[in-house]
Specification:
24 strands, 29% helix, four-stranded antiparallel β-sheet, alpha+beta, 24% strand, 421 residues, globular
Length: 421
């Protein structure tokens, strides 16, 4: 991304601070020492906290692609720490997105979607846009479709673009031909005109989700109604009177998939989940409480507090306690103290104590992000009697620990307190 360095009437000198925030680079301005998120272009701490930098349209592409489009270009020669940096760094299409924020509305276009559909017409915050992508150079661009007083719609033609080899497009109003990557009209009535470039950035998919948790996603399937998901679960799930499930019981798969889908719906699922806390089937209420703990909507707190104190189901009280603890805060601590002393069930009292050990700190979006990033196709890849599939987890000190590092060295014991979690 490229930013204009003038804000609040002053021009800043920005440099790398040496710090990270949410695993992303933090910039520092020389003039005030304020710390800036490089993804948001926003001062997060210091004298200029809250100030923002204007994002400028920029292109990330290969040298060959840039040189072809701009043969008279000049180059800023800077020292570097790597001997090479090429397009292969961006080859894993599943890891990257082309993102844009328009009038406060973020939207992400995953590289794997763009590789299949390199030209997309869309609308963001009421603004008509055109998204273009070249899988070969991994160059992407987002343009406004408004030219003068008209909004253009486009058809994809069969001919290649003169500048990039990507298919040219024609607008339906004048049948003029456009290069989707440069935004230039190359022939027809509008020849010589250019589309307005919008400030798109290339981002790691996970980073975009962290910094824009409410972003829209191109190609996302229509959201399922939370009430329908809960009804399907209630009809199909075989409830049991204890936490651990038999080895041959596949109910945990349905529960996990439903939990993931409900969690990814976010706060739009809150009302249905709150209603489900009172469902006559304990398993439905328990699932709702756990989903609410991951979603973290304050609007659900009163219902969770009632469930934690009044429910006759020990499992529902336990998961409601977990949800209250996950939210954090002083009010949570006061209620948890009472439950840790007075609840009739030892497991519920223990979970209240576990939550209190976090000293009011909530879990934020950690589990929601983990559920979102999990590939459901991997849900049943572990087979009893066969080597465990490789995975990595983050330790308490931030290190990534892989299962394979222990293979052949020592026994690894994975303990799951409850079979349904």
């Amino acid at each position: 991304m490229v930013y204009a360095t003038k804000t609040r009437g002053r021009t800043l000198t920005l440099r790398v601070s040496g710090m990270l925030w949410n695993r992303s680079l933090v910039m520092e301005d020389v003039e005030t020492g304020s710390l800036w998120s490089h993804i948001l272009g926003k001062a997060m701490q210091g004298e200029l906290a809250g100030a923002t930098l204007d994002v400028l349209p920029a292109v990330m592409t290969t040298w060959a692609d840039w040189k072809r489009a701009h043969p008279g270009t000049t180059v800023l020669d800077m020292s570097r720490t790597a001997s090479s940096f090429d397009r292969d760094a961006y080859r894993p299409a599943s890891k990257f997105v082309l993102g844009v924020v328009i009038d406060g509305s973020p939207k992400a276009y995953p590289y794997d979607l763009l590789s299949r559909t390199p030209v997309i017409e869309d609308e963001i915050a009421g603004r008509p846009v055109l998204v273009a992508f070249d899988p070969e150079s991994t160059r992407g661009a987002i343009w406004s479709r408004r030219v003068g007083d008209r909004v253009l719609d486009f058809d994809v033609s069969a001919k290649g673009s003169p500048e990039s080899g990507v298919a040219a497009i024609r607008d339906t109003a004048t049948r003029s031909s456009w290069d989707p990557l440069s935004g230039a009209c190359v022939s027809g009535e509008l020849e010589g005109r250019r589309l307005e470039a919008l400030p798109a950035i290339v981002s790691h998919r996970k980073a975009w989700r962290v910094f824009h948790p409410h972003s829209a996603w191109a190609g996302a399937r229509p959201a399922k109604r939370p009430a329908d998901l809960l009804a399907r679960f209630g009809e199909s799930y075989r409830d049991i009177d204890h936490f651990m499930r038999p080895l041959d019981d596949d109910g945990w798969k349905l529960r996990f998939r439903t939990l993931r889908e409900l969690t990814l719906l976010g706060r739009e699922a809150t009302a249905d989940l709150v209603a489900a806390l009172a469902d006559s089937r304990p398993a439905v209420g328990v699932l709702a409480a756990q989903a609410l703990s991951f979603i973290g909507d304050p609007a659900a707190r009163p219902a969770l507090e009632r469930a934690a104190v009044e429910s006759s189901s020990r499992a529902l009280r336990l998961y409601a306690v977990d949800a209250i603890g996950a939210a954090g805060g002083k009010r949570s601590s006061e209620l948890l103290e009472k439950i840790s002393r007075d609840d009739s069930n030892g497991d519920v009292r223990a979970h209240a104590r576990f939550a209190l050990e976090r000293d009011g700190a909530g879990i934020g979006t950690l589990y929601r992000d983990l559920l979102r990033d999990f590939d459901p196709a991997r849900i049943d890849t572990a087979v009893v009697g066969r080597p465990a599939p490789e995975f990595a987890l983050e330790s308490h000190d931030g290190r990534s620990v892989r299962l394979s590092t222990f293979r052949g060295k020592r026994a690894v014991l994975l303990v799951f307190i409850y079979g349904d979690t």
